[in-house]
Write a structure and sequence with these properties.
Blueprint: E1 9-13, H1 27-39, E2 44-47, H2 59-73, E3 79-82, H3 88-97, E4 105-109, H4 118-130, E5 136-140, H5 142-145, H6 151-160, E6 164-169, H7 174-183, E7 189-192, H8 198-204, E8 208-211, H9 218-229, H10 233-251, H11 257-265, H12 282-293
Parallel strand pairs: 1-2, 1-8, 2-3, 3-4, 4-5, 5-6, 6-7, 7-8
Helix pairs in contact: 1-2, 4-6, 6-7, 8-9, 9-10, 10-12, 11-12
């Protein structure tokens, strides 16, 4: 991979709001959240990722949700669509059947449950990239997938498979992410997949963050990233300090229950998730309410 990076800055990992009974996607609420992100500095949007509860949406809901995001943004901002899985052939079929109009890249999670080794992970992402009409962002999140895409594998894919364009790193392994940043080829982008690690990773050379918190605080996340990139570390540290407790609360009982509760408090959507996910406890909801009064 070489040349210009496909994306940089802050990408909002969009939630999928549901109606109160949880049976239907709340497209009006989604439109509000998309507009909020766009108006407050998000550089790109990601639909159908972890935060979007994609495993609990059927194929038609996923299609309608992705179409709505494309319609709302009308080409004003780059879009990324989550398409991944642990059956490589099924992922390739999905790529062949999906309408990518309005989208710039796909985010593809490492295969889960099968627990492939590094050779298997390389072969999987190579096959996905060779069959994708759009550049591929590797999504490394071993806490959910049971397998870590090691730095050597990421760099090998970046150098040998032209359509592998970036990685979203949610391993939390700062040292290993540093190896990717050191060894990546020109044009290969690295994004933090952890909101709380945005400052250190961007300071190390990462290109930005794919952020859950940006559903709610896109302006602050944008300010954080831009200040680090411009070398204004004191300003970045001040922003980070102001949002640090909120970020801790948002992930205390997992993602997306925390962000859904916060968005409900601020009037964006219902506090509704689909099983097996459940809403945060009353105690955490109350602490989020208190924290959000100061923002």
């Amino acid at each position: 991979m070489s040349g210009k990076k496909i994306l940089s800055g802050v990408g909002t990992a969009l939630v999928t709001p549901f109606k109160k009974d949880g049976r239907h996607v709340d497209f009006d609420a989604l439109e509000k959240i998309v507009a909020h992100s766009m108006e407050n500095g998000a550089d790109f949007l990601v639909a159908m990722g972890t935060t979007g509860e994609s495993p609990t949406l059927d194929a038609e809901e996923r299609r309608q949700t992705c179409r709505l995001v494309a319609t709302c943004t009308a080409g004003k901002i780059p879009l990324v669509m989550g398409i991944g899985g642990n059956n490589t052939a099924a992922v390739i079929r999905n790529l062949e059947e999906t309408d990518f109009s309005g989208y710039s890249a796909i985010l593809s999670v490492a295969p889960f449950y099968n627990k492939p080794g590094q050779r298997g992970l390389y072969a999987h992402f190579k096959a996905v990239a060779e069959n994708s009409p759009l550049p591929v962002i590797i999504y490394n999140i071993p806490s959910r997938c049971g397998a870590n895409v090691e730095p050597e594998t990421v760099v090998k894919l970046a150098k040998e498979v032209p359509n592998v364009a970036a990685v979203k790193e949610a391993s939390g392994m700062v040292g290993k992410i540093g190896e990717i940043l050191r060894d990546r080829p020109d044009g290969f982008a690295v994004f933090s997949g952890d909101d709380s690690l945005t400052l250190p990773l961007v300071a190390m050379g990462a290109d930005g963050v794919i952020s859950t918190a940006a559903n709610l605080i896109p302006k602050q996340m944008k300010c954080l990233v831009e200040n680090v990139k411009k070398g204004r570390l004191e300003e970045a540290q001040a922003v980070n300090g102001r949002i640090m407790n909120l970020l801790k609360l948002l992930f205390e009982q997992g993602n997306p229950p925390g962000i859904k509760a916060a968005l409900h408090i601020k009037g964006f959507c219902e506090n509704t998730l689909r099983l097996p996910l459940v809403s945060v406890t009353r105690n955490l909801y109350a602490r989020l309410e208190e924290e959000l009064k100061g923002l």
